[in-house]
Amino acid sequence: MSISSFPLNAWYAAAWDVEVKRALLARTICGQRVVVYRREDGVPAALADACWHRLVPLSRGQLRGDEIVCAYHGLAFNSDGRCTKMPSQETINPSACVRSYPIAEKHRFVWIWPGDPALADPAKIPDLHWNLDPDWTGDGRLIHAKCDYRLVVDNLMDLTHETFVHGSSIGNEAVAEAPFVATHGERTATVTRWMVDIEPPPFWRAQLGKPGNVDRWQIIRFEAPATVVIDVGVAPTGTGAPEGDRSQGVNGMVLNTLTPETATTCHYFWAFARNYKRSDQALTTQICDGVASIFREDEAILEAQQRAIDESPGRVFYNINIDAGSMWARRLVDRMLAAETAAPQAAE
User: Fold this and answer.
1) β strands within 41-108, DSSP E
2) CA angle 119-124-130, nearest 5°?
3) How far is CA 326 from the centre of its chain?
């Protein structure tokens, strides 16, 4: 695999909003070292994390007003990347600048566009509105995963693994046995699975707080190149959930957006939002801790998978029926990559 495994003309989450402060935050996004901070007016800014002069990381410097002062020789750069001060000279070299990245803040994330800035349309930011929707509540975290971001997408698009990896919490035999439907659009792929009249796994039994079997749903929606939203929940069987009436059940949204760091590492931002017991902060913390524990199980599997891939370069994956969603997700990413490759060739 090479660095071309991720498209550049896309919005990627650089950080949770609370991570970006009046301080310098270094992060690598799509192989590019970036420094992120908030200006005095609260608006985030992102610059290439390398001084124009000698390439020392600007993140090692100091933030003075809205400018970063390099820790090596004191060159200052404003939030547009333009150098405003050089030591021992009044005239500033007109070429003295560093790259400034398109940046936006939405759905509790700070997003960066690492590709062509002319194409950076904020309307293309993935929809994760549940993070701020007053009808929902929840929280999330950041995982630094030592694997190709596409392996995480594969994992999220096929939840059959819950039966085997998460059997003590959210998985049981019903997940692996239930049929599913996979569909796709130009930038999206969806996997829908209903499990009717089943015994709920421990997590969902506790959330529902009612005895008896349930109807359980998992509706997974991928948006290229790296966002997966999973509509999950259970309702007492026979109360109408498969027909659209979820009022007797509990509903959660698992929000996932991946940001490639390198070809074999990524930043994995996730949150779990729910539409029940919204004022119960203790439950929010309990669920967040529980989901974090579940995702650590995934992390161990995916990092072991990445090590095996690295040890067997060129090995082709085999696909079976349960891989339908992840196969479509990869095809959509490949189409984006092909379009980015074709654009420069067309210009020439």
Assistant:
1) 44-48, 62-64, 67-69, 76-77, 83-85, 103-106
2) 155
3) 16
Of the pLDDT bands very low, low, confident and very high (cuts 50, 70, 90), residue 173 is: confident
Contact yes or no for 269/259 (Cβ under 8 A):
yes
Name the token pair of 232. Answer: 């999950």
Q: Which of 150, 114, 111, 126 is nearest to 16 (CA)?
A: 111
Query: Are the CB atoms for 79 and 59 separated by under 8 Å?
Result: no
* R_g over Cα of the chain: 22
Segments of the chain assigned E as strands: 12-16, 25-29, 32-38, 44-48, 62-64, 67-69, 76-77, 83-85, 103-106, 109-112, 137-145, 180-184, 188-198, 214-223, 227-236, 250-262, 265-274
Can you give the pTM of this predicted structure? 0.93
* Closest to 62 (Cα-Cα) out of 86, 94, 41, 37: 37
Determine which helix (DSSP H) or strand (DSSP E) holds 341, and give its type and residue range: helix 324-347
From the centroid of its chain, how far is CA 129?
14
Q: With CA atoms as reference, report the closest residue to 108 among 225, 20, 22.
A: 20
DSSP 202-260: HHHHHHH---S-EEEEEEEEEETTTEEEEEEEEEETTSSGGGT--TTSEEEEEEEEEEE
Residues in the chain, total: 348
Residues 16, 22: Cα–Cα separation, whole Å:
14
Taking only the tens place, the pLDDT of each residue in 31-67 is: 999 999 999 999 999 999 999 999 999 999 999 999 9
